[in-house]
Write a structure and sequence with these properties.
elongated
Length: 170
C-alpha cells in the first residue's frame, strides 16, 4: 500500500507540474512565446543539420519552425502530460474493481481534452496569441495517443499479473 501511495504522489506531482507548465506557457505573450519557440527550433535545426546536412526539408525554415513547434510544443508536450495523468488515474483506482477500465480511460481523456481546451482558450486573451481549435486537436491527439499507449501497457501488465495470481491459486 505504501508503494501505491508513493507512486500516486510521484506520478501526480509530475502530472501537475506538466499541466501547470502547459497553462503557464499558454499565458506567455506572442513575442515571448515566439522567441522561445524560435530558440528551440534553432536548437533542433542545428541537430538536424548535423544528422542530415543539406537535406531538402531544412530549406523552408518557416515551415520547419511550424512543424517543430506543433510537434514538440503541442503534440509531444501533451503526450507527456497524457502519460503521467494516466498513470496517476490508474494508480488511484488500481484497487477499485468497481471502477471499470473504461471509466479510468474516460477520466484520463477528459482531463486531456479539458487541458487542451483551456490552454487554447487562455490564448484568446493573451496579446499576440490566438486560441486555435486545430491546436486543441493536436494537443488532445498527443495526450490521447500517449495515454492509450500507457493504458495498453497497464492492461498488459495488470492482467498478466492477475492471470498468474489466479493460476497459482488454482
Amino acid at each position: 500500500m505504501k508503494i501505491k501511495r508513493l507512486l500516486i504522489i510521484i506520478f501526480g506531482v509530475i502530472a501537475l507540474v506538466i499541466n501547470v507548465l502547459i497553462i503557464v506557457e499558454s499565458c506567455i505573450g506572442g513575442d515571448g512565446s515566439g522567441s522561445q519557440s524560435l530558440g528551440f527550433t534553432n536548437f533542433v535545426v542545428s541537430i538536424l543539420e548535423r544528422i542530415a546536412p543539406g537535406a531538402s526539408f531544412l530549406e523552408d525554415k518557416e515551415h520547419l519552425h511550424s512543424v517543430i513547434r506543433k510537434l514538440f510544443g503541442h503534440f509531444l508536450l501533451f503526450g507527456l502530460a497524457g502519460i503521467f495523468n494516466t498513470l496517476t488515474i490508474l494508480f488511484i483506482f488500481i484497487d477499485n474493481e468497481n471502477k471499470k477500465d473504461i471509466f479510468k480511460a474516460l477520466v484520463s481523456f477528459g482531463i486531456g481534452f479539458t487541458l487542451a481546451l483551456v490552454s487554447e482558450l487562455i490564448q484568446i486573451f493573451v496579446p499576440g496569441r490566438a486560441g486555435v481549435f486545430t491546436d486543441v486537436l493536436i494537443d488532445f491527439s498527443g495526450f490521447l495517443l500517449f495515454s492509450l499507449i500507457t493504458f495498453g501497457f497497464y492492461l498488459l501488465i495488470y492482467y498478466n499479473i492477475k492471470s498468474k495470481y489466479i493460476q497459482e491459486g488454482a
